Amino acid sequence: MEFQSRSRVPLLVLAVLLLGAVIFGLAGTIGSGNVGVRTTLGVISSEAVTPGVYLKWPFISSISEFSAKEVAIDLQDLTPKAKDNLSLRDMDVSVYYKVADSQIPALQVKYAGQSVRDEHSGIWLPAQGVVMRIVRNAVYEEVARVDSLVMHTKRDEMAASIRRNVQAELDRNDPHVFTVTRVVIRAVVTDPSIEESIRAAVANQKKLEAMTIQTEIAKKQAEIRVTEAEGIARANKIIADSLTREYLQHEANQALQTFAEKGNTNTVVVPANMTSAPLINIPAHTGK
Questions:
Q1: What is the pLDDT along the chain (288 residues), one digit of tens a residue?
Q2: Residue 205 lies in a domain
């Protein structure tokens, strides 16, 4: 028990000292997900200060807190020119990126003055000026590849392409430092005349789709009629092929026989080109 109580004394003293340092401004804290960049006599340390409590050295060094979390860049009211040489009225794009926490001090040395301090939290956003310029160029280059009339249908494709291009440019300058997590095209507003053209194009597309359906229906109906006609023609051919001269003569003889067997008649029917003797039915004398 005595050993445990003695071991707690230094920890208690250290806690009191740290508390006093914080109270008197001799210590500070780095929030979770952030890192600190220490500058001593104008020289930036290459080692990042990890989250937690750190000691200050007034008049000798200072520490700035930088975000190692996902950072958003919002570009608004852009007016890039499309492939058909028509400028957009308004385009809003958001790009989200992260920076490897261990590389933030080096970025601060390489891109001095390019980090931006968040007005609300007071935390610095690393190299945001550099990323913003690359994003802006990527947006303008991507819009220049797409016609304004179809741009509203290609938001996802354009966002994916912008993300790839921004990531490639960042990797070319600083490999394995930046990660572009996502790109969102929030708004695409074209010129009013273009909007009218888009509406007309959509209406014409709907008409074309309806006409295509009607054409397909007509083709199917025509195919049905052709199939029916072919069936009738084949049936007629089968019937015609079965009507031989002998068969027709047989049918004629059967008809004449039936006609001759009927009573109360004295008519004689002699078919043309008849090869057999005519059938004559003479009624019996009744004696009246």
A1: 444 444 555 666 666 555 554 554 577 889 999 999 999 988 999 999 999 988 877 788 899 999 999 999 999 999 999 998 888 889 999 999 999 999 999 999 999 889 999 988 999 999 999 999 999 999 999 999 998 888 888 999 999 999 999 999 999 999 999 999 999 999 998 867 665 666 666 667 767 777 778 788 878 887 888 787 777 777 777 766 666 666 666 666 676 667 666 655 555 555 555 555 555 555 555 554
A2: no
160 and 51 belong to one structural domain: no
Question: In terms of domains, do 162 and 85 share one?
Answer: yes
Q: What residues make up the domain containing 35? A: 12-65
* Cβ atoms 180, 167 nearer than 8 A: yes
Closest by Cα among 103, 21, 121, 107 to 65: 121
Same domain membership, residue 136 and residue 93: yes
- Give the total number of structural domains in the chain: 3
Q: State how far Cα 117 lies from the chain centre.
A: 35
Same domain, 174 and 158: yes
Considering the domain boundaries, does residue 201 fall inside one?
no
Are 163 and 131 spatial neighbours (Cβ–Cβ below 8 Å)? no
Cα–Cα distance, 231 to 216 (Å, whole number): 22
